[in-house]
Amino acid sequence: xxxxxxxxxxxxxxxxxxxxxxxxxxxxxxxxxxxxxxxxxxxxxxxxxxxxxxxxxxxxxxxxxxxxxxxxxxxxxxxxxxxxxxxxxxxxxxxxxxxxxxxxxxxxxxxxxxxxxxxxxxxxxxxxxxxxxxxxxxxxxx
Amino acid sequence: xxxxxxxxxxxxxxxxxxxxxxxxxxxxxxxxxxxxxxxxxxxxxxxxxxxxxxxxxxxxxxxxxxxxxxxxxxxxxxxxxxxxxxxxxxxxxxxxxxxxxxxxxxxxxxxxxxxxxxxxxxxxxxxxxxxxxxxxxxxxxxxxxxxxxxxxxxxxxxxxxxxxxxxxxxxxxxxxxxxxxxxxxxxxxxxxxxxxxxxxxxxxxxxxxxxxxxxxxxxxxxxxxxxxxxxxxxxxxxxxxxxxxxxxxxxxxxxxxxxxxxxxxxxxxxxxxxxxxxxxxxxxxxxxxxxxxxxxxxxxxxxxxxxxxxxxxxxxxxxxxxxxxxxxxxxxxxxxxxxxxxxxxxxxxxxxxxxxxxxxxxxxxxxxxxxxxxxxxxxxxxxxx
Lengths: 142, 385
Fold this sequence. Notes:
Oligomer: heterodimer
Distance between the termini of chain A: 76 Å
Number of helices of chain A: 4
Radius of gyration of chain B: 31 Å
Order of helices and strands of chain B: HHHHHHHHHHHEEHHHH
Helix content of chain B: 55-70%
Strand content of chain A: under 5%
Number of strands of chain A: 0
């Protein structure tokens, strides 16, 4: 039988994965999605406790989580758009001038891999239409 | 002396720590890095971590598995949620990450459904997989640069980040283990930790609802004026039938505990004078037993009122009918006990507007402020409308 504790353990693991993503990734959208994943972990906890106690209070809490997440998504999206307009990048480290006083800046030492630039495929240039000699069968059909 | 003779607590802590360390290694190898990553090693470490985690869960909490279907679905959905969550974190391409997030949402919605929350499942799918993912895919497409970039192909301290995250998770799991009395699992019976099953069986519910239907037809049998002597017997027999029908579920009279609820949920005393001990000690079972006791009393009271009214006219018709109405309402409430999935939306709405009205208003205000904020933030200075 699946017990309350199974759900709590899975929710904790989901929260942990989201936390790792939030701490390590630098794309702001991925960071945001990881935060949403942490919300999902908490939501599973609430719903499991609602089932455990046989009432709906936990589900009401999750409804409020969803409402707050929707607000957060709207505002975060607007912020990301503005930051992209200023810095032409979604990298959170571009904004490290906002860091705490006395903390050294992070500098990327390893260069990014360079993708070899490939020429786009060209179609054959257009020209005179090749002369078409109808076969016997085609001629017979026409 | 056997050095490897570990207590269950140490064994459990060791398993959690092993799973956490393997997960840290896996993520450290898999997170995007400009100098390339070791995919095979990372995936192997993650699979090993998942296996250790699953083994720990199974050995600690879930030995008997009679509910095959529920167990399989739970494993499927939780593996889906954790697996796609990992993909979201380690995937360098943010578009694919967003799709993986959609699958995480679908998997958690499956878990919601298993936990009897169909409305939340629908709402979560619509809002997350429908609205949030789509808007974020728009932004991703707007900002797509092509080729490797600092935001997608670099990670901030992969090893330390994974260490922090999974150390936290391991501690949460370990405190979970300590809190549920996994350390003293021998004393606490496994049944006490299960998610409570339905407190009422389907037959009991049907019996109660049939009795309610008969109680709704009170007017035909107890109309205005007094009952003529020729019909008195029929009327009393009708109500006796209802009383017995309710009695089969809650118990036939105030003292006896022969109702099917008591038989299922209570340990009857072997000797006279011993206390009655409930078999299930969760909130639901206690509430249902209390309700059943109330209905036993009300059942007797209403039937006495009917008999006295029909033969003596002593309690007036109105009082008799109100007793019967009270009985009917109590029986309806008992018939709905534990029915979490049934009328989920209706009950959620009732709870929202009865108990959490202020919070609902605040959430609405929050949404409005967020809308205004989003518009204000994205507005360009000096742009002509």
